[in-house]
Amino acid sequence: MWRLLIPSKSRVAVLAAAFIILIAAHPSTQLSTSTVYVENELSGNKKLIVHCRSKDDDVGAQAVDIGAALHWGFTPYEGTLFWCKLAVEDRRLSFDAYNGKKADIRCRDVRWAARDDGVHLLNSDGTEIESYRKEWKHLF
After folding, report:
1. What is the CATH number of the domain that holds 76?
2. pLDDT, tens digit, for every residue of 103-119?
């Protein structure tokens, strides 16, 4: 019955528009944002210096107080790579904070905690993922 109401060329346009709307509404095709957090969980009253960047974006160097975090959001792609350099007193380390080639597509937020023994990747419940820990290097 709808064939009688819609001319032939318009039918193709209506079907194409419906297809595009269905594809755009599907969750896997929507652009989503991810957020990286680098938290200062050091003992004492030590400020953490954090400098993170990607090939295209520089988050900048910032001093992060105890209990606070540096965080930024972005639209992830497979090739997205953010790396960070951390410094506290006489210790330094660098690590990949977000690697799109290794990231789980379901992982929207990435949390790192700087602690006295290094930086730790955390699950959403705050527990450490043992295989993702990087230790501090002492300058001398």
Report:
1. 2.60.40.10
2. 665 567 899 999 999 99
pLDDT digits (tens, 9 = 90+) for 27-84: 444 467 899 999 999 999 999 999 999 999 999 999 999 999 999 999 988 889 999 9
Token readout for 28 is 């896997």
Note down the domain range covering 110.
31-138
Average pLDDT rounded to a whole number, residues 82-107: 87
Here the tokens at position 50 are 């954090």
Q: How far apart are the first and last CA of the chain?
A: 83
Residue 15: which H helix or E strand, with range? helix 8-25
Structure tokens belonging to residue 115: 């602690």
Residue reference for tokens 């419940």: 125
Q: What is the CA radius of gyration of the chain?
A: 22
How many C-alpha atoms does 114 have within 13 Å on its Cβ side? 31
